[in-house]
Design a protein that fits this description.
- The structure is a single chain.
- This protein is mainly α and 222 residues long.
- 70% of the residues lie in helices and 0% in strands.
- Helix 5 runs parallel beside helix 7.
- The longest helix has 18 residues.
- The protein is elongated and about 55 Å long.
- It starts with a helix and ends with a helix.
- The relative contact order is 0.08.
């Protein structure tokens, strides 16, 4: 992490938006200068850029601009390492635009790379980092509720062939984050016909501390 990044972290909410915007422009310039190169040095540099962006104290419009940049990276960069660390940065920053891009980047192009499925392990970790209520509301409306619909729409519909792993990874991330405000959206999945989805839903509710009444039924589940 750069000296400026560490300084801005210490400033916290008092960080100057102009300084953040200036730093973002510099980081984007550095990233784009290496975007087409796949050497070890170029990939490491791009990873460093997205990691720094993920650790800066973004708020307001600068946050939106940083998230928009990450949204573009997660679906386009050719390096698995860069995409994975971009997901982690999105988990720290949030915003519906970046979250939508993250899901599309993870699930939208099956078979893009033999290592692409490894992002499935990154998604729960990224979701567990989210803190803004608006980000979790996006997940409830864009993933959890559509997954329960007889005719899924939106993101779940577009990634129909990935809807099951998408749901499993979302439930796992929600549980890791202990976001009890999602309880009502997750609880119906504990009765899903798919045993893996039932198990993941109970795990999520258990981590949230709201699984009372479900544990015994889960133990009796064939």
């Amino acid at each position: 992490m750069s000296v400026l990044a560490a300084f801005l972290l210490l400033l916290g909410d008092a960080a100057d938006g102009e300084h953040l915007d200036a730093r973002l422009k510099e980081l984007v310039r550095v990233f784009e200068g290496q975007a087409r190169r796949q050497s070890t040095e170029a990939v490491s540099l791009r990873v460093d850029v997205v990691r720094e962006i993920g650790h800066l104290p973004w708020t307001g419009k600068p946050r939106d601009r940083a998230a928009a940049f990450l949204a573009g990276v997660v679906g386009k960069d050719r390096s698995y390492r860069v995409r994975a660390d971009t997901c982690r940065a999105i988990g720290r920053i949030g915003t519906s635009q970046a979250l939508d891009a993250m899901y599309r980047g993870v699930f939208g192009k099956a078979g893009r790379s033999p290592r692409y499925a490894l992002l499935y392990s990154v998604l729960p970790e990224s979701l567990a980092r989210l803190s803004a209520a608006a980000d979790w509301e996006w997940i409830r409306k864009s993933v959890l509720l559509p997954a329960r619909s007889a005719k899924p729409t939106g993101l779940v519909h577009l990634a129909a062939h990935h809807s099951r792993p998408m749901l499993l990874m979302t439930l796992r991330g929600a549980g890791l984050a202990r976001r009890s405000e999602l309880e009502d959206a997750i609880r119906p999945f504990a009765r899903n016909k798919d045993p893996d989805i039932r198990a993941e839903a109970v795990r999520a509710l258990g981590r949230m501390g709201v699984a009372a009444g479900l544990i015994q039924s889960a133990l009796n589940d064939p």
